[in-house]
Amino acid sequence: MTQIIESISEDELSLHSIYETLRQELRLLISWTGIFALAGLATAFLLPVKYQARTSFQMAMVANTPIETPAILLEKLKQPLFYSDKTLKICGLNETDSAREHLIKALNPTVSKNVPIVTISYKAESTEQAKNCLTRVIRDIQDQQDEIAAPLITALTSQLNAAKEKLAIAERIKKQLSGNNLQLNFTDPKFSASVLMLSTMLSKETEAKELSNQITDLSVKLAEPQTRKTSTLTEIYAPNEKSDPPRVLIGVGSALMGLLFGMITALLKRQLKISNH
């Protein structure tokens, strides 16, 4: 019990001595805090100013189906070779592997949870350059997704054209048969032929209706919004406000580092005095 009381007393004494040391070295603490804060602010003002642009886009679709999942596109956006050399140039980067890696990190692509929408952003020395960079990145995505969508659209277009040709043939046959004066008279020696032509005409009429419905369905699938290119939801958002560097945050962080450095310096001075005595 006595040992516990002595231990508590020593801790209190130690904390008290630290407090007294810091109080005595208050000018030192203020000095180092001020020095670090000024150094941080000076660095912040020397850093180049950056402006941020941000946009969200929806992926290309064919027949109301995304041509690829958002997760796959997200992985593609993380590949350095996904971006063209022209994109790097417009984004103000050199055509190097490190520049491509920098672009991937700068874009910071994210995917919405419930809808196939991807959001990207970019910081540049001007709002115009930031917007142009994102516009060019969207173009790269469009080109890549157009290649995937092309054979799907071609297949649906072929089905549509084939249905139109069949409908034209069915309409022509139906028109030819309807021009004949069909009389279903049992005593008529051409009764069997009349029945056959009537059956054929009704069959072609049913086929024409089915083909018309198929053409309508395919036309809807091939038209917007069920089939569309990669496109942004709205215009690229690029406010004329400085995004980087966060000067206030840098100044406060530097001041805290200066305060910590001052506290360590004060405690080291105290320890040296104790050692010398």
Enumerate the spans where pLDDT stays under 50 for 5 or more consecutive residues. 1-13
Strand content: 5-15%
Biggest sheet statistics? 5 strands, antiparallel
- DSSP strand tally: 7
Structural class by helix and strand composition: alpha+beta
> How confident overall, as mean pLDDT?
81
Radius of gyration: 38 Å
Alpha plus pi helix count: 8
List the helices and strands in order.
Answer: HHEEEHHHEEHHEEH
- Into which percent range does the helicity of residues fall? 55-70%
Spatial shape? rod-shaped
Number of domains: 2
Q: Please give the alpha-carbon distance between the first and last residues.
A: 32 Å
Spell out the key features of this protein.
single chain; alpha+beta; five-stranded antiparallel sheet; two-stranded antiparallel ribbon; 7 strands; disordered N terminus
Describe the structure.
The protein has 277 residues and is an alpha+beta fold. It folds into two domains: 2-46 and 246-276, no CATH class; 50-244, no CATH class. Helix content is 66%, strand content 10%. It has eight helices and seven strands; from the N terminus they run ααβββαααββααββα. The protein has helices at residues 2-24, 26-46, 70-77, 85-90, 97-107, 127-178, 191-222, 247-276; strands at 50-58, 61-62, 65-66, 110-111, 117-124, 231-232, 242-244. Strands 1, 4, 5, 6 and 7 form a five-stranded antiparallel sheet that branches. It has a two-stranded antiparallel ribbon with strand order 2-3. The chain is rod-shaped. Mean pLDDT is 81; it is low at 1-13.
Helix-strand layout with pairing:
Layout: H1 2-24, H2 26-46, E1 50-58, E2 61-62, E3 65-66, H3 70-77, H4 85-90, H5 97-107, E4 110-111, E5 117-124, H6 127-178, H7 191-222, E6 231-232, E7 242-244, H8 247-276
Antiparallel strand pairs: 1-5, 1-6, 1-7, 2-3, 4-5
